[in-house]
Design a protein that fits this description.
The chain has 286 residues and is an alpha+beta fold. The chain is built from nine helices and ten strands. Residues 1-7, 53-59 and 186-202 have low confidence and may be disordered.
């Protein structure tokens, strides 16, 4: 006689837990053994449904099943408790949630060394014990990234985290120290403009802090405040700086490194920064 499969659950009652979490505004999804989401259904296999697992927002397609990993996370009790999700909940070993969808960032500390680093580097916030370490939860979202330093992952947008309980402590705002973890070292800037000697001597007026530095600061601010279309915002900021300051030779690598750092803090890769800079120069005929 075939013995029934025994499911080892991290969460004793995953469906009931998911409904409770969703009621607080946190998007949830079921996890199978191995701490991974359920695979896509036949209709969504290979992303043939036109799903959007690489977009920054949930809602991959009209499929009623829990497909597309983190993008399937929802707060809708009708979806969570639907017949199409019922099989997943029967086989679920645990519950996951989409931190970015709840306006949160999880700093996943995987060992004692990582925890010790966080305690001396990051502001105190709500903590959740994990199997080997801790999750530190902050209010605010950012790009997710793995291995930002030894034993440390960032889980926020386009990522899921295991639900291991509400945690303890007051939740702090997402600090710049966490955002800075995903910023790569500034890359060499292609086509950096050198400072030529001015005809007749004198100093370029753009060098004064009241003009050039204000222009750079305004570009940094526009990038930092971008809530969507980050690629386009970065390009427009680069274009604006180059159109104003790119022809007289006052820009230096230091100025452009500031803009690259601002873009990377919003999730842009060094390659995207380089492409945006090059495209802006090309558009201006430089």
């Amino acid at each position: 006689m075939t013995q029934p499969t025994v499911i080892r659950r991290e969460t004793p009652y995953p469906l009931q837990t998911a409904l409770s979490i969703a009621a607080s505004g946190v998007p949830v999804l079921p996890l199978r053994r191995g701490k991974v989401p359920f695979g896509n259904c036949r209709t969504c296999a290979g992303n043939t449904c036109g799903g959007r697992p690489n977009m920054r927002t949930p809602g991959p397609c009209t499929c009623p099943a829990p497909c597309h990993g983190w993008a399937a996370a929802t707060t809708d009790p009708g979806v969570i408790n639907s017949s199409t999700w019922a099989r997943a909940w029967r086989d679920a070993a645990g519950v996951a949630y989409h931190p970015g969808g709840a306006g949160l960032t999880v700093v996943d500390l995987d060992n004692a060394e990582a925890i010790a680093w966080a305690r001396t580097t990051l502001p105190a916030t709500r903590t959740v014990p994990t199997t080997r370490g801790e999750h530190w939860l902050y209010q605010g979202t950012m790009q997710s990234a793995n291995d930002v330093r030894p034993g440390v992952d960032i889980k926020s947008s386009m990522q899921y985290a295991r639900w291991l309980g509400p945690g303890t402590g007051a939740m702090a705002p997402l600090p710049n120290a966490v955002r800075a973890l995903i910023v790569k070292a500034p890359v060499p800037i292609p086509g950096a403009v050198t400072v030529p000697a001015l005809a007749g001597g004198g100093e370029c007026p753009h060098r004064t802090p009241t003009y050039l530095d204000r222009g750079i600061a305004m570009a940094e601010q526009s990038i930092a405040e971008a809530s969507s279309t980050v690629h386009a915002t970065v390009y427009r900021a680069f274009l604006a700086v180059l159109s104003r300051h790119g022809r007289c030779g006052c820009l230096t690598d230091t100025h452009m490194a500031r803009l690259f750092a601002a873009a990377q803090a919003k999730g842009e890769s060094p390659r995207h920064c380089t492409d945006a800079w090059t495209n802006a120069r090309t558009a201006l005929g430089m």
